[in-house]
Structure formats: structure tokens, C-alpha cells
Design a protein that fits this description.
The protein has 394 residues and is α/β, with parallel strands linked by helices. It contains 13 helices and 12 strands. The protein has a single domain, classed as Alkaline Phosphatase, subunit A (3-Layer(aba) Sandwich), CATH 3.40.720. The strands form 2 sheets. Strands 1, 5, 6, 7, 8, 9, 10, 11 and 12 form a 9-stranded mixed β-sheet that branches. Helix 1 crosses helix 9, helix 5 packs across helix 11 and helix 8 packs antiparallel against helix 9. It is globular and about 70 Å long.
């Protein structure tokens, strides 16, 4: 029955006109069990385009780094030093603050076997937690929602601060909610004149149920967005606005468990240093502001923030003073209750390369397993499809 409903939603004229009256991503709903207070929250930040990890976390004592990057390699004057051998890009001032406070864990050489250098395919792999030879239709967060509830009617338990919903947030029976402005989202639904009450048509009745749950979710998110209005100065633009929305909903005690947002522009084939600098300022200051907002409102202890990108870049710079698509990368974990803050593991090995690509040392699904098992308190193997040993950062 569910398959026929999903086929109907995918192929009917009503679904194809989704932006007119109902978001096209809504093919299910979700409700988690329990009260909002005391929930462990997860915030996921995606750096889209493949951020260059080697010019993010820099082995400035390694001569090979400068050999491979004679033009774009960052000198010590371009860095915030973290240790005698490692620094971070000096446009990541906010990240340096989090490091000094003990709120940041840097996990190096994160990737997966047989890496794919296509933006779309690699992002699908990260978002579905699949192997490079698997093609899945459900995201890892969507499967988490499925594991927590069946046949529920509250999509707001996973919110993406964007106009469209990522594959990561889509489950088989349950899915998250995508919005950028709670007021406008509510108004958009209220302005639609939708009449789908056809008891004799099971598909239309099902669609009506989805629409009704969406309206309810819009009301819920709108009401919570009014409870707390942040006075912090987030960076201007879509990314800063998304972090502000996330902070306001967390501090307002929304029942939302997972928040997702992204910052685009990291495909730096040409003129990397200037572009990456601007993006890092936006990302770093936004992240620091979010953390301070949560901390000052006693919500940081229950919030874990992860930043990832779909792949890193080649070790060797290209002729355009940029870098091309690579493989392994760093992942940032931010929280107040980290077991191992600082630099979690060894810096990338620049001697043993795979055709000028880094070899991964940490499977990204071990990070997901850690978050699921140790933070969200669920059996990760049921969501990831097999056992991945948790790490020790929380």
C-alpha cells in the first residue's frame, strides 16, 4: 500500500505542482517519542562543493605540503597555530576560539573506500551512508526517523534550513521538513486553497493527511520561532539566517532532534585562496555565534554540531592556483561535552599518496555511528545497515 501511495505522490499532477500548494518533498511524516526538554540535538553543517581540507587544517611544518603547493600553500603568517606542527586558516578565527575553549574536535583523513570524485555521487554516499557501490533512496537521518516512529504525523522533528530537502533527511516512511522562514512557510500553506477530502480515493485521502500534518508542523514551527528571538549578530545572508533559525528553535525548546544546513561555493578549481577566505569567515563567525547563542541560553550541553564536505581536494595545486576534486578530508565536531577535544587523530600522510590523493583513515560512517550510538542513543547498525565501530569524541 505504501508503495502505491508513493508512486501516486511521485507521478500525480498534484505532486508535480507541489510548490503551488504543498512542498514536493513531503511524502511522509515523523514523530519521535518523548518530551522536548532534555533532548539531545544534532546540527549538521554541509560545506558543499568539496572543501580543501589541507588549506583548512594545515601541516605547516611539513615540507611536502609546500612542495605540492608552492603558490597556494599557507605560511605561518596565514594561520592560527594550534600546535607546534598544525595550524588552521587564519580566516577561521571563530573556529580557533572554539578550539581554545575545548569545544572542537578535528578528525582528519575522513572518507570511504573506493572514493568517488563526482559532487553529486559523493554527496549521495555521504547523505545515505552507503558504500561507493550502493545506491540507496533513503538518507541516514531519514532512516533514523523511520526507526523512531512509524505512521506518525509531525515532520518537524528533523528540519533543514533550506528551500529544498536533502536526500539525507528522506526516509522510507518518514521525512524531515525544509524551510527558511517559519512565518513565510506558514503563510504559503495558509494561502493555498486545497480540497483533497475524497474518502473514496485512498491516494487523495493519504495526500490530504500529509497536507494536514504539514499545516500542523508549520503552525508548530511558527509558534516556536516566536518564543525566542536572538539578538546575536549572525553573518548576513542565507547561511547566517539558517543558523539563526536553528538557534531560535533549539532555544525555544522545539522537539526537533536534527537540524541541517549548508554553505555552498567550495568547488575551488580557480583562485582558491580568496574564495576560501570569504567562505571561511562566513562559516567560522556563524558557527561561533551559534555556539555562543546556545551556551548563553543553557542549550549547548545538549547540542552536538558536525561539519563535513563531500570530499577534499587533490594534494597538488593545479595551474589555476586552485585544487581539483580529491578524496579524504577533515570533519569538525563541536560540543561542550567532548571526550577528546583538539586534534583527534594524525594529520594526513603526504608521503603515501594514491595518485596525489590522500588515503582515508577514518570511515565517515564511524562518525555517524558515534553520533547515533553515543549521542542519540539508538542502535546505529539498524540505521547504517551494518556495524561501524564508534569513535571516542563523545
Amino acid at each position: 500500500m505504501k508503495n502505491s501511495r508513493r508512486h501516486f505522490l511521485k507521478h500525480s499532477a498534484l505532486a508535480s505542482a507541489g510548490t503551488m500548494f504543498i512542498p514536493s518533498f513531503l511524502h511522509g511524516s515523523s514523530e519521535l517519542i518523548g518530551a522536548a526538554k532534555g533532548y539531545k540535538k544534532v546540527v549538521i553543517i554541509q560545506l558543499s562543493g568539496g572543501n580543501d581540507g589541507l588549506n583548512t587544517v594545515v601541516p605547516y611544518r611539513n615540507d611536502l605540503y609546500y612542495k605540492y603547493r608552492p603558490n597556494i600553500g599557507l605560511k605561518t603568517s596565514d594561520l592560527h597555530t594550534l600546535t607546534d606542527e598544525v595550524g588552521i586558516n587564519n580566516n577561521l578565527t571563530g573556529l580557533k576560539y572554539l578550539y581554545d575553549e575545548g569545544y572542537l574536535s578535528i578528525i582528519n583523513q575522513v572518507g570511504y573506500p573506493n572514493p568517488n570524485r563526482s559532487h553529486f555521487r559523493s554527496m549521495d554516499i555521504w547523505q545515505t551512508a552507503s558504500g561507493s557501490d550502493e545506491y540507496l533512496n533513503e538518507g541516514w537521518i531519514g532512516r533514523y526517523l523511520d526507526s523512531q516512529c512509524s505512521g506518525c504525523d509531525k515532520p518537524y522533528h528533523a528540519i533543514e534550513a533550506d528551500d529544498t530537502l536533502s536526500l539525507a533527511m528522506k526516509g522510507k516512511n518518514n521525512t524531515g521538513l525544509a524551510l527558511t522562514n517559519a512565518n513565510k512557510f506558514k503563510q504559503m500553506l495558509n494561502e493555498q486553497d486545497v480540497h483533497l477530502d475524497h474518502a473514496e480515493n485512498e491516494n487523495l485521502s493519504y495526500l490530504n493527511k500529509i497536507y494536514t500534518s504539514t499545516q500542523m508542523s508549520a503552525e508548530y514551527v511558527f509558534d516556536h520561532s516566536k518564543i525566542y528571538k536572538s539578538k546575536k549578530e549572525y553573518p548576513k545572508g542565507a547561511f547566517g539566517n539558517s543558523l539563526k533559525l536553528i538557534a531560535e528553535l533549539i532555544i525555544s525548546q522545539s522537539e526537533t532532534k536534527v537540524y541541517y544546513t549548508s554553505l555552498t561555493g567550495f568547488d575551488t578549481h580557480v583562485g582558491q585562496k580568496g574564495r576560501q577566505a570569504r567562505l571561511f569567515e562566513n562559516y567560522s563567525e556563524g558557527l561561533k555565534t551559534l555556539v555562543l547563542d546556545l551556551k548563553e541560553n543553557n542549550m549547548l550541553d545538549d547540542t552536538l554540531i558536525m561539519t563535513f564536505s563531500e570530499f577534499g581536494r587533490r594534494v597538488k595545486e593545479n595551474a589555476s592556483r586552485g585544487t581539483d576534486h580529491g578524496t579524504a578530508n577533515n570533519v569538525f565536531i563541536v560540543g561542550r561535552k567532548l571526550k577528546k577535544p583538539g586534534i583527534y587523530n594524525a594529520m594526513p600522510d603526504l608521503v603515501n599518496l594514491d595518485k596525489f590523493d590522500l588515503k582515508y583513515q577514518v570511515d565517515f560512517r564511524n562518525i555517524y555511528a558515534t553520533m547515533l550510538e553515543k549521542w542519540m542513543d539508538v542502535d546505529s547498525s539498524k540505521i547504517l545497515g551494518k556495524e561501524f565501530k564508534p569513535l571516542q569524541f563523545v
